[in-house]
Amino acid sequence: MRLIAKCGPIGVDMGDDIVKVVQLENNGKGMSLIAGDSEERPADVKPGSGDWQRWAIEAVKKLTANGRFHGRDVIATMPASEVFIDHIKMPGTSNTTKGFSEPTNINDDKLAEVVFPKIKQKLPFESDGAMIKYITAEQDSVLVIATEREKINRHLAIYEQANLQVKSIGVWPIALTNSYTRFFGRRKADIGAIVMLLDIEPNRTNVVICRHENLLFARSIPVGTKQLESDEMAARLVLELTACKRQFSSMQKNAHIERLIFLSGQAGDRDICATIAKQLEMPAQTGDCLAAVKTAAPCRLGIDRRGCQVNWATAFGLSLS
Asked: Whole-model pTM?
């Protein structure tokens, strides 16, 4: 029987420093990379400014108009700097089966009604203009992911001007979890294992703790590869990651993080990654999304896989959605 390949949406990882677009294809036997490309933000363009929005429109137009991509459907994410994340303990939102606590399907409106008052005063913007996503986790925890409606509209305008159809605005923690489960968490033993994912970008480190596809914790730290050239900043990142572990342990009693996974691929400095793992006293591995997929058509790829210094984990996770 001939297998029919299915193209995923174009994943657009819109960061403060770089925009990355990628599209994956599932042929029934595995994932293939159809096309991908990226463009760095000019140094004289301030993130979030009008100039940045105009640059983003032209960059997305150029990156997706070269004929390598199939269709115009997009799942995009916003810069981590524009997304607020908090964790709330909410008794009655999870149950315990299979030896660990799993999310319970509860009415989203009811969840919002109970959780919103607890995070309203924490939001760094006016709550009336907030767009909020609630994700139930294990042991009665709820992840709250929020951004401003005005910023959502600004991003939607970018894709409209680029003649693309937005299927949804995704969130980076779910995209990173998608990449991990699809490419690096495929063993039977991985189903119940809790792992910490690190996605080190030029000016940020995005942290996810998950049990396979169950997202348990997320945080973005404003320290990235550009700052990690300093020993002082590297030490600060380790302290921040230690605080993440401590906060997670306070929310998820008796939950043990088994290993650390760097999803930065070839873009991550191996010495820095080894230092972080050693100071956190955790076994670690590197997850390279580019090495985890086949190439559907090398002549149409648009990505130089040799020594690639671009981190594709979030973009891959969006195209997997």
From this structure: 0.91
